[in-house]
Design a protein that fits this description.
By secondary structure, the protein is of the alpha/beta class. 53% of the residues lie in helices and 16% in strands.
C-alpha cells in the first residue's frame, strides 16, 4: 500500500459513523487504487468522545478496514518529534484534531475529508484538496 490519499479528521469520522456516503466512497476509491486513508489518533479519540456509544461500532468497523491506517504522532522528547508542529497547527486551526489532520495532510501530500473545512483552510490554505462532508 502506498502513502495515504486522504486524511480523515474527527468530523469525517463522525460523518462516517452517521452514514454519510462520501466518506465510504473515498474509502472504496482508496482501496481500489491500492492506496490508504490516514486517521490521526487524536481525531479517532475526539470522534469516540463526541459520538454516542451506540455509534462506536462504526468506528470499530472503519479501524478494521485494511485501507485505513491509524497514525500516532512521533513522540521523541530529546529530538525532533511531531508535537510542536501539531500543536502549532492546532492553535491556528482552533482544534487539536484539525491540527493533527493538517499535519498529516502536509506530511503526506494528502487531501483531507472534514466537516469543518474552514478550520483546515486556516492551516492548509484555499488551494489544498479538502472534501467537506
Amino acid at each position: 500500500m502506498s502513502a495515504p490519499v486522504y486524511v480523515l479528521d474527527s468530523g469525517a469520522l463522525m460523518a462516517y459513523a452517521q452514514g454519510v456516503d462520501a466518506v465510504g466512497e473515498a474509502l472504496v476509491a482508496a482501496a481500489d487504487a491500492d492506496a490508504t486513508v490516514a486517521v490521526p489518533l487524536v481525531c479517532l479519540l475526539e470522534a469516540y468522545s463526541l459520538l454516542d456509544h451506540t455509534e462506536h461500532e462504526y468506528l470499530s468497523m472503519l479501524r478494521r478496514n485494511p485501507a485505513v491506517r491509524i497514525i500516532t504522532p512521533a513522540l521523541h522528547v530529546d529530538r525532533a518529534d511531531d508535537c510542536p508542529m501539531i500543536g502549532g497547527m492546532a492553535r491556528q486551526a482552533g482544534r487539536l484534531g484539525a491540527g493533527n489532520a493538517a499535519y498529516l495532510a502536509i506530511s503526506n501530500a494528502a487531501g483531507v475529508i472534514t466537516s469543518r473545512a474552514d478550520q483546515l483552510r486556516k492551516v492548509l490554505g484555499d488551494d489544498w484538496p479538502i472534501v467537506e462532508v
